[in-house]
Amino acid sequence: MLVVIPWGLGLLDLDILDPLRRWWLLAAFPGAASFLVPRGPAAAALAGVYAAGTIALLVALPEVTGRAPVRRPSAWTTRPATTRQATIRQATAATRLAAWSAPVRAAMASALVAPVIASSALVAARGGYPLFGFSPTVLTLTVAHFHYAGFAAALIAALVCRALPGDPRAGAAAWSVPAGTLVVLAGFFLSDWVELAGAAILTAGLWLAAWLTWTRIRPRGERLTRWLMVISCAVLPVSMALALSWAVGRAAGLPHLSVAWMIATHGVTNALGFAVCALLAWRTLDRPALATPTPATSTEA
């Protein structure tokens, strides 16, 4: 909540979120501080501040889904000297948004909604309330899951799809990540087998996004960007294989890692190795480089 969300918001290229991104830490710090306070009303109130910030993200949903009305600069709020610049800036943003494909919009919409789910679980967990019958421990894991699998993974899949317009594989990855996350969420309420199906869809989408990043996008960056993408793409097959094996073990009653070991392995590698490195790489990637076609056979790191 302190790093991944503000970094990700900067990559969405949505002017409407710029003020929220600049002031994000005012909501994120109370949310993080809620873990330092014993469970109860005070901790829940701190988490509630963060929840309010995540709900504010939904203001961008109409633009992401293509249902926002065209916003024009107002004569009452815009000085004449800046009206033309504001008009040009808004026209450029509208052109950019219009070029987004359906899978890009779906993945980005999913990324905006995921923090709301995470913060709702956080409020319940820090308040000690068993939301939908789930214990505070499970709810705390849900907070992490919907920050990384829900927000970061969906955003990264959307960025891959946006960088490779017209590539059906990128579109499949962008559809699969939010779909897999949604099925995993449904599995919490239905059965372990449904959760396994969601994990399989999510894993397939992330593996595909990683492969496309490695072969098509990584060669376009500078040295630091390429190495960050190497790390994020290299750890993902291992971390998601752990998630898949854990889901299989729970559904089929087979031996599998404990929750503590899953946090130490799958959780840490996905958070630091995949999400943080990938977001850093995308932040350092020059936008003009995305327009440069690169052969898929390049192997330079």
TrEMBL record:
Please list the coiled coil stretches.
Answer: none
Any Pfam family matching the protein: YndJ
Q: Alphabetically list the UniProt keywords.
A: Membrane, Transmembrane, Transmembrane helix
Q: Does the keyword Transmembrane helix apply?
A: yes
Q: Which domain of life is it from?
A: Bacteria
Q: Where are the transmembrane segments?
A: 43-62, 106-125, 145-165, 172-190, 196-215, 227-247, 259-282
Q: Which InterPro entries match?
A: YndJ-like (IPR025450)
- Entry keyword Transcription: no
Per its record, how is this protein called by name? YndJ-like protein
The record lists the lineage as:
Bacteria, Bacillati, Actinomycetota, Actinomycetes, Frankiales
